[in-house]
Write a structure and sequence with these properties.
This protein has five helices and 18 strands. It has 291 residues and is α+β, with helices and mostly antiparallel strands. The structure holds 2-acetamido-2-deoxy-beta-D-glucopyranose (NAG) (4 copies). The site of one 2-acetamido-2-deoxy-beta-D-glucopyranose (NAG) has 6 residues, from β8 and β9. Keywords: Membrane, Signal, Transmembrane, Transmembrane helix.
Length: 291
């Protein structure tokens, strides 16, 4: 009789204790952390993984921006893939590019990168062309349907432009300062060369007074400075970056602005009129008298 009672109590304890522990754990983890909770529920993580479907958020979208000619890496991470295969599909024409580690296109620029035992199935596209711009879908078939991850691949074409209008008017003796911007270039250009007409002047030592400062970055900026501008410095200035079409402006070096400044002064205040009177009438008279 007592033996039976002890056994009953033991059995009750055996069923109650784990349940209370589990309840306690559940409370501590909070309602939102169901995954974490499930991970603890199963005695070990491997078992938990084995029992679940491929882990993949359906219909997620990510953006990748790469410049023309570069290499794109479109990432897709799937846990618990098991025996299933990952396919990459180009949405433009529904072409299946890769399935598992195999490539189903003659275009050798496409390749799937996957290291055995990892969760990454990366689609690599080399020597990017404008027509590669578009949406790519990484998909996996599961018991409940197809799950997809979308990647929008944006192809950008780097552009160079020189700040200001197409014509720059510079006073004789002043500083020519031109700024070239390299836009839409996630990878900075390898070089930016400046040309005066057809001559490269980055390292010009013959003339002197020329400096080029290039700050590389997502928006590369190159500044050309030429001190003490002369007539011969007039002409076509071109900024040529490694990854863009060149950009050019025309520079006119002239005394034009000095003359304009004088005529502006003539017609302004009374003291200026006196100053000009002294300059144009008195000074020549004094000079004549001194002879
Ligand atoms: C992707 O780009 C679109 C617009 O082109 C934007 O609405 C969306 O939020 C971006 N997604 C991510 C994950 O950055
Ligand atoms: C993923 O979403 C698509 C579109 O909403 C749906 O057709 C498909 O059944 C979903 N897959 C799963 C496994 O839920
Ligand atoms: C593809 O190019 C068009 C036009 O240039 C642009 O509007 C679109 O957003 C691009 N799509 C992607 C996914 O980059
Ligand atoms: C400057 O020279 C380049 C190449 O020499 C030429 O393509 C461009 O049209 C010229 N620009 C101007 C403003 O003359």
């Amino acid at each position: 009789m007592t033996e039976t009672l002890i056994w009953t109590v033991c059995l009750l304890l055996a069923t109650l204790v784990p349940t209370t522990i589990q309840h306690k754990m559940k409370r501590e983890l909070g309602k939102g952390d169901s995954t974490e909770w499930q991970q603890l529920w199963y005695s070990n993580f491997e078992e938990y993984q084995r029992l679940t479907e491929p882990s993949f958020d359906n219909n997620t979208v990510s953006n990748v921006t790469v410049q023309l000619g570069g290499t794109a890496f479109l990432h897709c991470r799937v846990r618990n893939l098991g025996e299933r295969t990952i396919s990459w599909v180009r949405r433009r024409d529904w072409h299946i590019l890769t399935s598992g580690v195999f490539t189903y296109t003659n275009d050798e620029r496409f390749q799937v990168l996957h290291a055995e035992g990892t969760d990454d199935w990366t689609l690599q596209i080399k020597y990017l062309q404008k027509r590669d711009n578009g949406t790519y879908e990484c998909q996996v078939s599961t018991g409940t349907g197809i799950m997809s991850h979308f990647v929008n691949l944006h192809i950008v074409v780097p552009e160079a432009y020189i700040v200001g209008s197409g014509e720059h008017h510079i006073d004789l003796g002043s500083v020519i300062s031109l700024v070239c911007m390299i836009d839409k270039s996630p990878q900075p250009p390898q070089y930016v060369f400046w040309f005066h007409n057809n001559r490269m002047i980055n390292y010009d030592t013959a003339r002197g007074g020329i400096s080029v400062e290039t700050e590389s970055g997502p928006k590369t900026q190159s500044k050309l400075t030429i001190r003490d501008a002369h007539d011969v410095d007039s002409g076509n200035y071109t900024c040529s970056a490694s990854n863009t079409e060149p950009a050019s402006v025309f520079v006119f070096v002239s005394e034009g602005d000095k003359m304009a400044a004088i005529s502006r002064r003539k017609s302004s205040s009374g003291s200026d009129v006196i100053a000009n009177f002294l300059w144009f009438i008195v000074v020549p008279l004094v000079t004549l008298a001194a002879r």
